[in-house]
Amino acid sequence: MKSKNTLKKVVDKIVENILFGTAILSASFIVLIVIVIFERGITPFISDNDGLGQVNLLRFLTGIVYLDGPTFLSNAYGIGYLIISTLYNAFLALLIAAPIATLTALFIAKIAPRWLGNLLRTIIEILAAIPSIVYGLFGAGFILNVVYNLSVSFGVQSAAGFSVLSTVIVLAIMIIPTMTVIAEVAIRSVDKSLIQGSLALGATQTQTQFKVVLAAAKSGIFTAAILGVGRALGEATAVALVAGSRRSGITFNLFDTTATLTSTMLLGMKETVGLDYTIRFSIGLVLMVIILLTNLTLNFIKRKVGRMYA
Amino acid sequence: MRKPFSLRLWIDGLLQSLTYLFSSVSFLTLGAILVFLFNQGWSLMNVDLLTYDYESNVYLATIERYEEPGNFPAMQSLEDNVYYSQKWGLGIEEGVDLLGQPSIIIAYIHPDSPFETLVNKSAVGPEQFPLLKEYLISKISYNDRATSLARRGAERMIQELDSSNSIFELEVTTKGGGIRGSLITTLWLIGLTLLFALPIGIGAALYLNEYAKKDQATRIIRSFIEILTGVPSIIFGLLGLAVFVPLVVSLTANTNSPATGGNLISGAMTLAVILLPVIIRTTEESLRVVPNDYRYASLALGASQTQTTFKVVVPNALPGILASTLLAIGRIVGESAALIFAVGSIIRDEVTLTDKSTSLAVHIYSMMTDEPANIALSSTIAIIILGIVLILNLLIKFISYRFLKGRLGAQV
Amino acid sequence: MEKTFVVKGLNLYYGKNHALKNIDLSIDSHSVTALIGPSGCGKSTFLRTLNRMNDLIPDVTIRGQVLFGSLDVYDKKTDVIDVRKRVGMVFQKPNPFPMSIYDNIAYGPRCQRHYEKKEMDALVKKALEDAALWEEVKDRLNKSALELSGGQQQRLCIARALAMNPEVLLMDEPTSALDPIATAKIEELIVQLKQHYTIVIVTHSMQQAARISDQTAFFLLGDLIEVGDTKSFFSTPKDPRSESYITGRFG
Does the CB of A124 have a partner CB in chain B at under 8 Å? Predict the structure, then answer.
């Protein structure tokens, strides 16, 4: 009898340790990612790169030409312009997506009759489940044409539709669903007593919705925005198919071609070696830093604004 | 008493119109996407898509040595323009090849026909392959009479075939544009990824929910796992490239099909890392739903912690574990960026675990970055992917409401 | 005594539940009318019919007449916004908006029209003074209203309602969520306010009704059992059920 119990205890200990191991393993991957990307990403700046020489860090971070010189023969990489265009595209997409997501959430939560709200919510869920490659396909097959025709009617030059505008539209479409879901939860959890208080003061339903409900749901809506921008910064395949793979220069013109850190990382993956291959890790490292900084900044702003309104 | 029209009413009306307008955006977008995909891709949709190769190849082939002509009455009604050889069980019709030149197209093959499986005489390609509908025949050579040429027409070819008793060889062009390779790849990826991810994920969830103390250390572990959800998938691709690919290359170095670069196994490992947070979170959710009374009852009966966990808790948490599996499958089917890095984007018809290939999603990417981009076939594949994802989401919703008190939404 | 509200034959149904049964009640101007009764007796429901807040509840049917001066509150042509501007309401749990103190007070007026800064400053000051809150918050008008204590928040809500310059103030158990000191302050305020406003207050505390009201109405299970001058109601109630309630035999 006693040995059976000790056997059970031993087994328990072993099992617990195994499970602990899986938990530690799961937690270690983020550390692994950071270490690996850092290690690989730093290499071009501190090693000789098989005879091509060190890449200049300052030029890398501020340069406006992706590669000065022939591929595989030059080390003059610069992604400064990519950093700017990545942020530009992402925030422009946020600018479009945020009002749409917020008002759609308001509509579903407060205005629409039950059946319509549920229908719209289902549509949003379906959109949220669509993989990014399909959005990229939709962008390349449809949005490009739309933007091209648009540019023609404005009399503006456009490279068959590959443009900032196409990228921003596709990104906005992609982030609206998740943003809407989060905003809807925030709006629905606004205390009913606030709504009653507003109506009792003689405000209309619309005034109440826009002046009180949205104000009270502010922090949730901000969270949705932070998540949306994060997704937009990290999106790769969809952007690669509609951006136009710009190789140099900063532009804010909606109809110019563009590129992002992620789309540049993707291109040319089929055949790449040496520095051209390793530099992608450096770009990835910069991407992670950008996302981290953006998150920290936005969260800081959120807390600053939130303190006023608890 | 009439209300005077005030600024307030105008503003209210404007805001309301804006709200209705913006809310219709989602509706219109989904409609546009569906209309686009079906418009472009529906015409290519048929079952053959799943079995055909992507590449179209020309082979010189012959029938197996022991095969002989016989009597093979057609087992389905054939259209008027199909010429059928009952002796050989082969039905053909006239058509055009990919370049628009007149050619002979296989319309029907009797299941017992000697032509059903061909032996490849070319230096490349598989040793044997089935003769399938819509393949092209350029010529048939015989041992006992003159060669049949496609350009002389289908009726004549059948007459010449019927008059022969011994086939020397035929020149066959396989139909391309199939997604069999990518489909198989996707299935392999699902299987391997789940193999890697489920034990680790469920194990971690079990530890966190059943064993871990609610202290700082546990919180740290949890937050490290949660951070992964904010990482873009392309970064995971870099991880796969830097760690998993070399790992598999060295692990398979001494086997008879060693990996030399991107491969399915490292792709599965990469996907597993991406899926860990989702699997852990969903499994934990379902573990929490198991009433503590079950645990107490089991322990009070003298069962060990291990027995309690695996014989009482886990079986009751199965719906949630199933839901997390379905979520994972949906994510695997849709993932593209990470796989492009960790596996590659070369479309293959023959799939090996230690070599590059494309999943359905990456197949689309590969075609769309070609010149010219194949929007039609991409749309067809997209329809398939969407169908899979939607069915999975419905299943997850069903499980969630039935077993988990509606705690999950569609999160794929 | 002039009557602010005259209610005749008021019946209210929540679905099939007959919540208010044939209520006839008049509310005197510039006085405090207390509505008392055990939980679920309909006193809050009755209060809400006076400013059409029951409209917000689905499946509600209302029959009868509620006259506000010469205006039939439930007439189809009546503008409900207008009614709510003239009849203010304070709720049981203080519900300040997540905005500054200033913006809370200014909210109601701003919904109706634009105000110049000077005009609004004066309006806010007066409202806070009338609610006996000005001295305590005059230096932090731009701070969040949520930083105030419970009692202060409730006085803020009163000030917010007063900023609309209503004729009536409806109060639904305004002190039940507050401590005794804050309660006393608000009761003091109510007695002052009745000089300028008509006040109808729902309370579950008979002592409070006895302390501050001029007229008391006793509700039970949707019926109006008895209504009358507060002093005589509590000393010599006419209906035996009123007496049972007052002496604490139920409720």
Answer: yes
Q: Does the CA dihedral B170-B176-B180-B182 come out positive or negative?
A: positive
Judgement on whether residues A282 and A196 belong to the same structural domain of the protein: yes
**A277 belongs to a structural domain:** yes
Q: What is the pLDDT along chain B (412 residues), one digit of tens a residue?
A: 334 457 788 889 999 999 999 999 999 999 999 999 999 999 888 887 888 888 888 889 988 888 888 888 888 888 888 999 888 999 999 988 767 778 899 999 998 888 988 999 888 888 888 888 889 998 999 998 899 888 888 899 999 989 988 889 999 998 888 898 999 999 999 999 999 999 999 999 999 998 988 889 999 999 999 999 999 999 999 999 999 999 999 998 888 888 888 899 999 999 999 999 999 999 998 899 888 888 889 888 888 888 888 988 999 899 889 999 999 999 999 999 999 999 988 888 888 888 899 999 999 999 999 888 889 999 999 999 999 999 999 999 888 888 766 655 444 3
Does one domain contain both A16 and A111? Answer: no
Assigned domain for A294 exists: yes
Q: Which residue in A201, A204, A216 is closest to C161 by CB distance?
A: A201
Whether A26 and A99 share a structural domain: no
> Is the confidence metric ipTM above 0.90 for this complex?
yes
Among A195, A196, A201, the strongest candidate for a mutation testing the C interface, having the largest count of C CBs within 10 A, is A201
For C131, the 3-state DSSP assignment is coil
Residues of chain C contacting residue A194, judged by C-beta atoms under 8 Å apart: 95, 97-98
Which chain A residues touch B230 with a CB distance below 8 Å? 230, 291, 295
- d(CA A35, CA A83) in angstroms, rounded, equals 22
For residue A290, the enclosing domain spans 80-309
- Both A100 and A37 in one domain: the answer is no
pTM over 0.90: no
In a domain, A65, yes or no: no
A41 and A188 both lie in a single domain: no
Q: A241 and A110 in one domain? A: yes
Q: What CATH number has the domain bearing residue A105? A: 1.10.3720.10
Q: Is the same domain home to A42 and A103?
A: no
* Strands C87-90 and C168-172, bridge-based pairing: parallel
Q: Count how many domains chain A has.
A: 2
A266 → closest Cβ in B208, B333, B337: B337
CB C12 within 8 A of CB C54: yes
Q: Residue B222's CB: how many other CB atoms inside 10 A?
A: 20
Q: Does residue A59 lie in a domain region?
A: no
SS3 per-residue string spanning chain A: CHHHHHHHHHHHHHHHHHHHHHHHHHHHHHHHHHHHHHHHHHHHHHCCCCCCCCCCHHHHHHCCECECCCCCCCCCECCHHHHHHHHHHHHHHHHHHHHHHHHHHHHHHHHCCHHHHHHHHHHHHHHHHCCHHHHHHHHHHHHHHHHHHHHHHHCCCCECCECHHHHHHHHHHHHHHHHHHHHHHHHHCCCHHHHHHHHHCCCCHHHHHHHHHHHHCHHHHHHHHHHHHHHHHHCCHHHHHHCCCCCECCCCCCCCCCCCHHHHHHCCCCCCCHHHHHHHHHHHHHHHHHHHHHHHHHHHHHHHHHHHHC
Enter the tokens of residue A190. 């606004």
SS3 call for C9: strand
Closest Cα of chain A to C198: distance in Å? 16
- Angle formed at CA B307 by CA B302 and CA B309, multiple of 5 degrees: 115
* C67, C5 contact by CB (below 8 A): yes
The minimum CA-CA distance between A204 and chain C, rounded to whole Å, is 7
Query: Are C77 and B3 within 8 A, CB to CB?
Result: no
Based on the fold, state whether residues A94 and A39 are members of the same structural domain. Answer: no
Q: Judge contact between C155 and C133, C-beta under 8 A.
A: yes
Closest-approach residue (CA) in chain C for B4: C79
